[in-house]
Amino acid sequence: MKKILITYATYGNGHKAIAEYIANYLDKNKYEIKLLNIMDYVGFLCNFSLKIHNFVTGHRFEHLFSFMYTTADNKLTVKLYNFLFRKIIYNKRVQKVFLDFNPDLVISSHFYGSNAAYYLKRKGLLDAKIMTIITDYSFHNFWTANDDKDEIFIVANDIVKREMIEKDVVSKNIYSYGLPFDILKFSDVMTKEKILKKYHIKENKKVVLLFMGGGNGSNAYMKYYKTLVKMNIPNTEIIVVCGKNESVKEETELFKKYHNKKNIHILGFVNNVYELLKISDIVISKPGGATVTECLETKNIMIVLPGIGGQEKYNARFICKNNHGVKVRFTFTFKKALLTLLKNEKEFKKLKNSYNKVSKNESLEKISKLIKKVLK
């Protein structure tokens, strides 16, 4: 039985989610599959960098992260990264977990996993194919830090593929399959009527879904929530997802109670986001790669809030360029955009119809077929 090692790093929830989607979709009778969070095996300095990342993203230092992201996007910085990877990230614990499993294929939804696999291959300790899933709607040189003609890349669309070719990526195995999403959960979603009943939401009303900064939640988005509460929009139900952040959840509930709002539904971390997306008319969120992919599949109009910068800036551009939503920064532009979509049916249908050109996401099916071909 062929062995597949699927690696990710917990810089946000998207890398982990995509790794799990692939692992859950593949046939366990054909492959022995192991999921690996590489952050469980790295050293102190790398974990410290994760804490800095979470602090920066949690407090939304957008311009700082964008500066770091752009500055690092060049060949010289990649060489420095490769040196630091060998000194700080890679270690005997990482080596042991790779070699003990001895995979035939390494799939990575974060470049750390691909880098570790290539380093072991160069040392002659590992003989495995390497597949990297670039988890955003833009390309960064760190994804090809160990670019090789045999490496396989899965990208969101032809735009990213062209960008990689223009930047002289050595590999010719670039497949624009789209980003994986949880097709198994999506296919198993209840009817809209049952979902509305489950969340105690009234029928025949517009539903607005607000994500408070991804799976970990963030106070940085509280101003948009408070603006939403104060708007007094008739015939509208509002769902607020706070993620794992209990302080954010507590503050949103207190604000709701103070303003005596009956049409606002506060949730913590949710296990089946597709239920909420299915009943929503408008999704308000920062433009994480996984969220954008899910909205593309469910055909939800997005109001894009400022994200962490960097790759999310390009994700936002993708949404706006294709008329799938609008980007806002200030609370007054947020208010104006939401009211326009709720009151102007022509504008709402214009954005909704933009999804008519979006093909069905068959990423997992295509990846599965490619794996079968690669492991023959």
Describe the fold and architecture:
The chain contains 17 helices and 12 strands. The chain has 376 residues and is an alpha/beta fold. It has 2 domains: 194 residues, Glycogen Phosphorylase B (Rossmann fold); 174 residues, Glycogen Phosphorylase B (Rossmann fold, 3-Layer(aba) Sandwich). It has a 6-stranded parallel β-sheet, sandwiched between helices. Strands 9-8-7-10-11-12 form a 6-stranded parallel β-sheet, with helices on both faces. Helix 11 links the parallel strand 8 and strand 9. Helix 10 runs parallel beside helix 11. The mean pLDDT is 87.
* Overall body shape: globular
Secondary structure tally: strands? 12
SSE series: EHEHHHHEHEEHEHHEHEHEHEHEHEHHH
Fill in the CATH topology of the largest domain: Rossmann fold
Fraction of residues in helices?
A: 40-55%
CATH class value of the largest domain: Alpha Beta
Which helices and strands, and how do they pair?
Blueprint: E1 2-8, H1 14-25, E2 31-37, H2 44-58, H3 62-71, H4 75-89, H5 92-101, E3 105-108, H6 111-122, E4 129-133, E5 152-155, H7 158-166, E6 173-176, H8 183-187, H9 192-198, E7 206-211, H10 222-230, E8 236-241, H11 246-258, E9 264-267, H12 273-279, E10 282-285, H13 289-298, E11 301-304, H14 311-321, E12 325-327, H15 331-343, H16 345-353, H17 363-374
Parallel strand pairs: 1-2, 1-3, 3-4, 4-5, 5-6, 7-8, 7-10, 8-9, 10-11, 11-12
Helix pairs in contact: 10-11
